[in-house]
Amino acid sequence: MKHYLSLKDIDSLPDWVSEARQLKEKPTAYKNLGSGKILCLLFFNNSLRTRLSTQKAAMNLGMDVMVMNFGSEGWQLEFEDGKVMDQGKSEHIKEAAQVVSQYCDIVAIRAFAGLKDKLTDEAEMVLNGFKKYASVPVVNMESSVGHPLQALADAITLAEQNSKPRPKIVLSWAPHPKALPHAVANSFVAMMRLQDAEFVITHPIGYELNPELTKGIPLEYDQERALENADFVYVKNWSSYTDYGKVLHQDPDWMMTSKKLGKAKFMHCLPVRRNVVVADAVLDGGQSLVIEQANNRTYAVQVVLKKILEGSN
Ligand code: CP
Hints:
Elements: H1 13-25, E1 38-43, H2 49-60, E2 64-68, H3 70-73, E3 77-78, E4 91-92, H4 93-103, E5 106-110, H5 118-122, H6 125-133, E6 138-140, H7 148-161, E7 168-173, H8 183-192, E8 198-202, H9 211-214, H10 223-227, E9 232-236, H11 258-261, E10 265-267, H12 280-283, H13 290-312
Parallel strand pairs: 1-2, 1-5, 3-4, 5-6, 7-8, 7-9, 9-10
Helix pairs in contact: 1-7, 1-13, 2-13, 4-6, 7-8, 7-13
The site of phosphoric acid mono(formamide)ester has 9 residues, from helix 2.
């Protein structure tokens, strides 16, 4: 495998989940694989889980890690070909990506959607710029439209927690005061297409995700009806896709509560705003899987790094 940019780079989700679970059993079993190799993490946006779990996974594989908060510490990047760079941007992606490639064996990038312009976000300029100009493999640590490491961790968590042949899994929108990207929801939807499950999406009118991604998946605007007999409920806020990047409303009735959850297990990628997105009682109760999801971030990225290292050795 050359890059890990989206769920499309997974050739067999069950095999990857199985391999990740084996790594979880023996995290340092491949300590020699990454010896002498360097992973460079470039953050254009904040992180807790992605940053620490990726470092931990790389260390489990014997890699050295360099981290740069590119968004606040790097030069502002230009992406346009042929641009006369006489304004604020000091460095072109062409040089930046090639230069970073001189210092590491794998580069991982986090660059969120700006949520101002749909076409700009969907162009994935940072991730695709590195893919085009870097000479080393590129890993997506959450881009404008996808968070494939989170979705892989969620698949691991589902495999560990599910005991039914075809569980009912609901992706439910929740209120949030800020406009958030669609990346987590998009990748969760893509991952669910690879699962044998009854999958339903629920959100208020106006919060439809990119129809190209959700085509054929049942959508239920009545949250209560969608949650009936659910085994797993994945809660996430996202801003409007149609009225791009807007917060259309913050209806508190959509917050997840113990009553609504019923007997289902609760999932969320974190960070989460307590008593806005989900009630304290859910997060503090025995049905919440959020800490296991965060733990599985390590083994998700570890299987990705392992496959890239095996391909490059
Ligand atoms: N879920 C997730 O990606 O967490 P961070 O933003 O803290 O990395």
